[in-house]
Amino acid sequence: MLVFTDNTLPNLPCGWDVDTSCCTDWDTYDPSLQQAAAEYGALMVWASTGRRFGACTRTVRPCRRDCEDCGGAAGWYYSDGTFMPYLLNGVWRNCWCGTGDGCSRCSPTCQIWLTPPVSGIIEVRFSGSGVVDPGSYRVDDWQWLVRQGPAVSGSGPTDCWPISNDYNFPVTGPLAPADDSAWEVTYLWGLPVPSVLQRAAGELACEWAKNCLGLPCRLPQRVTSISRQGVTVSLADVDQLLANGLTGLTTVDNVIRAFNPYRLASRMKIASPDLPTIRRETP
């Protein structure tokens, strides 16, 4: 079994653990061939299942968005006596919704939105007080980081996530501010890889390694028919297999069809002007 890490596979897919237990000769192959074969198997199965599985580590600098975004004006706007409309969670509201209004009912008092799917939080860190206690937050619906319970020592400046995030400074290092004005969330973005996909990737990797060594393997070739001694054997059309996102290995392709029956090329996305702004630092 070969485990991918950031050192062995710097590009997607992330978080894949290729299970090669079905390959009886795997341990006899050179480590460089094992690595290349495992990368091939993981990449092909990841792409063929719509590029949906595999959790990557992300660090983001979010800003909390709630009823107070319009500046705290209660009811009528101070300057000209008119309501200030704004969009919150898909609903148009007038500033300021205030305590006990509909925007705060049937939902957590304090939460921030992270790009889904969120499969796990690694840490929440403030520039001043450091790492937040994991027991003080939870993840709802694979996308909402909810602050729960009262603030505890080292968990941040208040009971809630700060509305602002000072992007002028880093969260760590000599330039980080001494207070909690800068903060970040590091989490696992993506869906965990099902074990059946790990085994399918391992089976494909095994056949690729055999083909690389010139050994008999089950990978389809471009020959579509062979006639010998009165017997005709037709092989799979490789171009058609590739067009359908398949590999030619029956057991692997059955898994691919089960996870991606409509042959989607990538995960579906939703664009909305109501989505909060999240900033990511370019590596």
Characterise this structure.
This protein has 283 residues and is of the alpha+beta class. Helix content is 18%, strand content 22%. The chain contains 4 helices and 14 strands. The strands form 5 sheets. A 5-stranded antiparallel β-sheet has the order 8-7-11-3-14, with no helix packed on it. Strands 6-10-9 form a 3-stranded antiparallel β-sheet, with no helix packed on it. A two-stranded antiparallel sheet has the order 1-2. α1 crosses α2 (195-212) and α2 (195-212) runs antiparallel to α4. The longest helix is centred in the first third of the chain and has 18 residues, at 31-48. The radius of gyration is 26 Å and the shape is elongated. It starts with a strand and ends with a strand. The model is unreliable at 3-10, 67-79, 96-104 and 152-157 (pLDDT under 50).
Strand content: 15-25%
The number of helical elements comes to: 4
* Biggest beta sheet attributes: 5 strands, antiparallel
Task: Give the averaged pLDDT, no decimals.
Answer: 79
Low-pLDDT stretches are: 3-10, 67-79, 96-104, 152-157
Describe the global form: elongated
Q: From N to C, what is the helix and strand string?
A: EEHEEEEEEEEEHEEHHE
Count of beta strands: 14
Q: How much helix, percentage-wise, in residues?
A: 10-25%
**Biggest sheet: strand arrangement:** 8-7-11-3-14
Structural class: alpha+beta
Alpha carbon gap, first and last residue: 30 Å
Rg computed from alpha carbons, rounded to a whole number of angstroms:
26 Å
